[in-house]
Design a protein that fits this description.
- The protein has 175 residues and is of the alpha/beta class.
- The protein has a single domain, classed as 3-Layer(aba) Sandwich (Creatine Amidinohydrolase, Chain A, domain 1).
- Helix content is 33%, strand content 14%.
- It is built from 7 helices and 6 strands, in the order H-E-H-E-E-H-E-H-E-H-E-H-H.
- It has a 6-stranded mixed sheet with strand order 4-3-2-1-5-6, with helices on both faces.
- Helix 3 links the parallel strand 3 and strand 4.
Length: 175
């Protein structure tokens, strides 16, 4: 299945779920930048392999925001996907929230997998969207239903991290 097929399937689920825009952060529940395969949703939906970026898909458009480390890479990897590369963290760039505000009508709904967004970011985004009458649904994962054979959550045994590397013991850190 290619990128266009994936986005088409995502749009179908968005329509069924009454979602006007869907945000794919490509992070895991720990908000890591470098994530296990299970959480490489941004890469799976867009083909962009950089460690930082965010994809937003609406019924008609899709865009990826990334920073200057990845501008050339993103342009190359997104070629032919229909996804627009947006420059993030630049003085002349359009933040993804503002782009959403320009694309989603009042009374619209934006969706995001709540496991991939921080509480602070969700509150900030909610406030910005609510100011235009747009809601945020944080309880919807629209990627899993369309990602056949999605990798599973890795299961590695826990281990003690040596004090010589950690600096102090677990108990000292907890205290």
């Amino acid at each position: 299945m290619n990128i266009l097929d994936r986005i088409t399937l995502l749009r179908g689920l968005m329509m069924e779920s009454k979602i006007d825009a869907y945000i794919i952060n490509g992070t895991d529940p720990h908000l890591s930048e470098y994530v296990p395969e299970k959480w490489r949703t941004r890469e799976w939906i867009s083909g962009f392999t950089g460690s930082y970026g965010r994809v937003v898909v609406t019924s008609q458009k899709s865009a990826l925001w990334t920073d200057s480390r990845y501008f050339l890479q993103a342009e190359a990897e997104l070629k032919g996907s229909g996804i627009i590369m947006m420059k993030d963290r630049q003085t002349d760039s359009i933040p993804y929230e503002d782009w959403i505000l320009s694309e989603v009508p009042s009374n619209g709904i934006v969706g995001v997998d709540g496991l991939t967004i921080s509480v602070t970011e969700a509150k900030r985004l909610t406030n910005k969207l609510n100011a235009k009458g747009i809601g945020l649904n944080q309880c919807i994962d629209l990627v899993s239903p369309i990602w056949n054979n999605r990798p599973v959550i890795p299961k590695y045994p826990a281990f003690d991290y040596s004090i010589k590397f950690a600096g102090v013991s677990r108990n000292e850190k907890i205290d």
